[in-house]
Structures are given as C-alpha cells and as structure tokens.
Amino acid sequence: MALSLNPLFARAALAVTRFAARTPLLAAITPSGGAISVPGIAYGPDGRHKLDVYSPQNADKAPVVVFFYGGSWQTGARQFYRALGHAMAARGIVSVIADYRLYPKVRFPAFVEDCASAFAWAKANIAAYGGDPEKLFLMGHSAGAYNAAMIALDPKWLKPSKLDPVRDIRGLIGLSGPYDFGRLTEDVLITIFGGDDRSDTHPINFVTSAAPPSLLITGGQDIRVDPGNTARFARRVRDEGGFAEEIVYPKLGHLGPALAFVGPLQKRIPIADQVARFVRERSG
Hints:
globular, eight-stranded mixed β-sheet, 284 residues, GDXG_lipolytic_enzyme, 8 strands, Rossmann fold, 35% helix
C-alpha cells in the first residue's frame, strides 16, 4: 500500500511534462478544428488560483472535464498540460486545467479546497466557453486524482459553494491515483497531511453508494503509486453499489497515463479515447 511520491520524482515528472508541452507539435493551436484556449483565468485571490480553458471549435453545451495534475502536492503547472486540453477538445469536450496551491506554502486540506473552488468556477462560468454546467466531470493524475476523488466523495468540499457531488458531478476519472495508500513513511508527506495515517485523508474512506461513476486507469508497472490503490478503490465503489470501470495498462509506469495525451502517443495508448467514451456515456 505504498505511496512513494518524493520531491526528486516530482521534479522529474515536471521536467517530462514541461518538455512535452514545449514541442511544437503539441503546443500548436490550429485555426480550424483545434482548441480555442483561454489561459490564465482567475478563480480565486491567490497567484496560484488560475486556470486555462480549452474548448472545441463552435462548442455549445459540450461536456466538461475539470483536470488537476500531479506532482506530489509540491510541483506542477497547468501550462504543461496543454496536450491534454487539445486532446479533449479534439474529441468534443471542454477542458478546464487548474493550478492549485502547493507545499510548502500550504498543507492538507488547502489544495483540495482550491480544486473545489476551481470546480465551482466551472459550474458557474463554463457555459460562456461552450460547456454545459450540467455535464461536469472531475479528472486528475496522481496527486490530482487524489484531489478529484476527495471532492467527488466528500460533500464538505463543495458545500461552501452550495454544490453537491451527487447532483453536480457526472463522473470521476482517475489516472494513477492514490486512493488507499496506507501509512505514510516519507517525512514530507507526513508533514503535508498532518500525520502518517489520518483516516480523513484517504479517499477510499468516503466511498458510499452515492459515489459518482468512476473511470480508473493505472499502469501495471507503477512503482510510485501502487496500482493496488486503483483495484481497492474500484472494488470498494462496486461493493457499495456504485459503478467503477478499472483499466490497467500492464506495461505503463506512473507517468504513462498522463503522457498518453501527448501527440502520437494517443494512438498507441488510447486513454484519451477511453476518457471521451466514458464522458459521452455518462453525459446522457
């Protein structure tokens, strides 16, 4: 039940996503058929309270994915996930990619609260960008999947915005997420979460029959977040009477599901298509 998200790995992950975002093939916005991007929208008062919106051309009441990146709650930037925004727009989905405050500036639960605020912004404003506020999905990779799961499962995070997960979230999409990581052993993570095994920091402890439908994707070779997190979480959702689709890519590591949205990798690793299919099925 290991959760191994140390700062060295976080910096390596950031370097990979930064490189991917800077390649011309991934960063280009084509005038016809590509995404319309609106960067740097403020959803709160802090400098990290910014998000980017990617909309399909001529979008009208399109389903919406609100995405949070990983980075061990210590690193990350929305600009490095442009490939994901373009991939989703190409499939008719509006994407909101949000920054949130990180350690050491904040600790749990501030980053979850920030992500909840970004979701609330989408609910209130996404219609102006061609999205349907009645078709909102939460999505994240690694630490971002954790943030998304906490918001989707525990109503208290959206309550200040007068929103409710059962009513306002159509589905949860988790990539390489730590949902049931057991006792923490790394000092920095113990500091971030205020203890080594707090029950109120484990998403799996908030699963009920009201949990939104989930698409959970992981790599079988993930040595950073034990793939068992996904298996246990999916099983708990199903045991409670909910819907959870679990997909394991046996040869992928921790970063694989996030990098699958990058250019030519989309055909080799069809996660973008699987996400789009899940969103269409649950948009109903």
